[in-house]
Amino acid sequence: MSKVRLSVKLLIGFLSVAMIVLIVGLFGIKGEMEMNTHLDTISQESLPAITQLNRLNFERLQIRAQTYEVKALPIWSPELGKELEQLARQREASWRNIEDSLAKYEVLPHNKVERTVYEAFLAEYKIWRASYEKLDSLVDRMSQTSGADEYAPLFSEYSKIIEDTFLLSDRVGVLIESMVALKNQGATAQLAASHKAGSTLMMINGIGILVGLILSGGLGVFITRDTLRQLGDEPARVVEVVNRIAGGDLASEIKVRRGDETSLLAAISRMASDVKNLLGEVSSASDQVATAATQLASTSEQTREQVQVGQSETDQVATAMNEMLAAVEEVARHAASAASAAQDTDRETEAGGVVVNQAIAGIESLAMEVEEAGKVIERLSDDSKEIGAVLDVIRGVAEQTNLLALNAAIEAARAGEQGRGFAVVAAEVRTLASRTQSSIQDIQGKIERVQNGSMGAVRVMEKGQAMARESVDQAQKAGVTLQTISASITSISDMNRQIASAADEQTAVAEEINRNIHNISATVDQTSEGSEQIAASSDQLSRLSMQLQERVDRFKI
């Protein structure tokens, strides 16, 4: 038992007391549950059953009293019908209350004996209820009579039957009282069982309290003695020794009682001796740490200066890389712009080629039209010449006609009066020939002008045709030149794309170099910070060494 830890012993003691409390509590809960069960049985079974049976018996007595009230009316009167009807309504209400009580009683739990008595009651109840059906019929007939002659025989018959119904009612009342007695017995038994459970609970609680007191007292004494043995002395003395050691006094001797080598006080004594030896070693080590901290501070200062130089050079390289990256990006942008412009020019050149081809086709079509117009004008000139020949013929005919008309006029003049009509005709023919000749001359002038104009138009058409052929040749040369320019622009666009691609690759490489330089710069910064932290740690270590030495000097060794 001496090797068992104090915490375990305390835990065993408290658990023992807690177990007793738990056992007592469990028995108390069990007894309480039994008492509640018995009381629930009384409140939920016995008392509701007794209540319904009492209500049933009360309604039985009410029906009996109503029956007597009818018997107390032997003489007919005009108001008798209303009184009987009121009594009939009261009896119907009583029967409904009885049926309601029986339904509520039926659903309650019953033991075997109670069930047997209840079945006997139901048999008697049916007989009793049947006998009252005849009485109720007589009362109904009596309420409807109109005179004493009709009322008297019905009342006589009613008086004879009620004696039998009273006997049946008494038998039903006896059975109701028997059922009430059985329910009272059950309630009494449940109440007695509840009292018994309460008495048992009180006895168990008393025993548990007594055992708990004895066990608590014994465990208290045992744990106190064992605790003092493990401490080695009274707690006040142990605290005094610990405070003295905490104050730095390790030179004072700690007295330990014989046989308490395993106590806390003996362990404190061994600890004080070990701490005294440890402080001597710590004092020596503190001097060595102070020397090393001074050397480390000097080395970290040199490292920090070198890191600052490297950081400055790295910043310069990073600046140069940023400038180069900006230049490369500018080249890439210009190359991309040139490629875009070349592509636009190529598209415009292709559009110009299409326009030139369309112009060539239009000029060729125009040349063909001009040539065709020249042919038409030449045909017009030929037709004009033919018309001139025809006019010459007509002119000759007109001259001959004029001569013939002149001759006819001469002959008519010779003929005198007989030739006057012929002379008129000849004069008209002469006039017509003269007008024809004049028209022919006019037509001849116009035809000559048309011929002169057509010859000029033919010359113009020939010149336009030559110029159209020359324009076609120049347009074809322009189309060939545009194709050459388009090929050159395509080649320039390809070279611009290659330049842009190379610039992009150079930009990516420059960005990668720039990132590496930034990483190097960050690493240098971290190294610089680390050097500063090392220097600060060295200073702090030196201060801590001095403080440690001061702390060690506080102890009395």
TrEMBL record:
Domain T-SNARE coiled-coil homology: 481-534
Domain of life of the native organism: Bacteria
PROSITE patterns to which the protein is assigned, alphabetical: CHEMOTAXIS_TRANSDUC_2, T_SNARE
Annotated keywords: Cell inner membrane, Cell membrane, Membrane, Transducer, Transmembrane, Transmembrane helix
Topological type in the membrane: Multi-pass membrane protein
One record GO biological process: signal transduction
Nucleotide-binding among keywords: no
Identification of the protein by name: Methyl-accepting chemotaxis sensory transducer
Species the sequence originates in: Thiorhodococcus drewsii AZ1
